[in-house]
Design a protein that fits this description.
mainly alpha; Glycerol uptake facilitator protein; 9 helices; 0% strand; globular; disordered C terminus; membrane; cell membrane; water channel activity
Length: 238
Amino acid sequence: MDTSLVRRLLAELAGTAILCLFGIGAAVSVAAARAGGPGLLIIALAHGLALAVAIYAFGSVSGGHFNPTVTVALAARGRFSWREVPAYVVAQLAGGVLGAALVYATYADTALAAGLGATTFGTGAGYIQALVAEAIGAFILVTAVFALAVAPNAPRGVAGIGIGLALATQIMVFGPLTGASVNLARTFGPDAVLSLAGEGAAWSQLFAYLAGPLVGGLAAAFLCDYLVTRRSAVGAGV
């Protein structure tokens, strides 16, 4: 494995760990403090700000994916090598586990009592609702990625905060339904650590957190690429 790829994989692992550490940690801290209405806002902002930090810290090394949905969406439009997708996804999943493990190491039994911030279906939410919510949330996130980081005329320097805010926004809307993961690593990490700790994990729901984000992310990637291409072809007068 070449040195460049190793550096990029370590950056993906570290960035995903930062996102999951502070996103999961916020969910645990809100539960521990028994926060009321502001709880969802705190969780959303923690995820968004953590993603922004990770992008600014490691984006120049690995591209700042930190999410299998983003990696696959970029590869589907020829913006990333399919050959490196499996390695990136493994690094991201490892980052999710590391982030969850650090929260568990910090909060111990309190983290377990809060379900380790695992993303699960909300009360009354069915599989179809979960798939739709995860797909729409991923659509918003990947749209932000293409508009702020991929498009040739993207504004400089705002990708991190813009993409982070897109993640936070969809959590505010869909958090009560699914936890608004839109990131297999974010869901897999807590589930894996809960299982290793001898606690129950909602593995039967994992498919929704895989399929929903992929469908929404791919739809956004194709739509954004089409719109950007069309705009470039029309010319400067648009």
